[in-house]
Amino acid sequence: THGSVNSMNAHPHTDESGQICLVHNGIIENFQQLRKDLIAKGCKLSSQTDTELMAHLLSLELKKTKSFRQAFLAALGKIQGSFSFVVMHKGEERLYAARRSSPLVIGVGKNEMFFASDMPAVLSHTRDFVFLGENEAAEITKGGYEIYSLEGKKISRAPTHVEWTAQMAQKEGYAHFMIKEIHEQQTSLRNSLAADISGAKKLLLGAKSISLIACGTSFHAALVFKQLLAREGKKSEATIGSEYASTVFGKGDVAIAISQSGETADTLLAVRSAKEKGAKIIGITNVVGSSLSREADACVYIGAGPEISVVATKSFTSQLAVLYRLAFALCGQEKQAEKMRNLSSLIEAVLSKESEIKRLAAALCGKKDFFFIGRGISFPIAAEGALKLKEITYLHAESYPAGELKHGPLSLLENGVCVVAIAPSDETASKMLSNIKECKARDATLVCISDSQSMLAECDLHFKMPPCEPLFAPIAYTVPLQLLAYHMTILLGRDPDKPRNLAKSVTVE
Questions:
Q1: Do 340 and 215 share a domain, yes or no?
Q2: 75 three-class SS
Q3: Which of 197, 200, 207 is nearest to 237 (CA)?
Q4: Domain range spanning residue 71?
């Protein structure tokens, strides 16, 4: 919401009387006009945030009716933008809530009820959840819940029991969730390889065209899928969710929407636009009952389990595993998927060399500028490596296709700049070696992640990967980059689970 980070703008917010207290996730788009109107009516505002306006709106509506529900719905009718509100009215043993374009769930316990943005927040209390739909409101008491539309029409919905457990959302002896989730990738990959893709496969085989919609880390997974199809002469488009307006959808088209939470606002807006134009939607998500899972025509659950750290790790490799399986199915190469069973042992081999990554992190901690490079199917992994590093170390990191260095980035290379090369022994290896040499000639520090001894010999620092079939390098080569970002963050004294200014689920546009 609006306003700088200080105690004045911190939630919860109240009206002047202190009778109404609320919290809010989202952005009120018409806050300037509402603020002006409320001031004109004599309301005294005490913060810069848009959230406070709802408390005052509700207070004014409550003067017109004795029904708090009616006042709540009337106030919501004046709000433009995205929101999930939870409201308390003094004297009532009841909480009110509503959502639009922002997630909200009801946790159903024994003689207790909860509102939360997502399930892990209350897994220690319950594994039964009711997922509120778009433009829905709800009330909870100790003994039950009611759901209704923003027009006041009652809605009946039973709870869903989830397999996630409270233990899954604990650190279990690890220092941080991020490192725990990196080490869980052997298990999460096995789950992804067992995920049901039948509905998605059917839609893809009948598709006139295929587009992918995603944001952040999920977009990098989409780029890998695009490369997999291109290798087999099949065309697809990958679009960042917030840029979906440039994508043309029509009847017979299929859009694959990828979101760990299933609640990414930009991705969901693109999904709704594609559906309006006649496209079918395949959702790839980690969360049963999420908005994406409900709005998709077919959904694949990646089965990564709760991912608590803000930065995506195991969900990314699980997304990749599912996308590989879909690509193989589309290209008539489903036997290739059987080879993916070896990936868990490959990841185990990488994790067993974590001490080497720690030493590499220590050697790089004094650097301020990083360029991650890769070619072909390895470029999205270079992009993911740069994103991980900048997210949690707060250091400058960029990614480029290695062949693009000569079109601008080479001018930035000098002593003190670090280039991280993602260089598996594939068909791009000889050209990648040339790129490494041209970076070295500019006095940059070269770090190489590779299984090729000749490639490693050209670099100042390196991490030797275990032998890996080049086709599956994106999954295997992701892990050392995650570990590098984590251990550099620890050495810099920062919290890898809660990077500044970022949220796990990006539920605003």
A1: yes
A2: helix
A3: 207
A4: 13-161
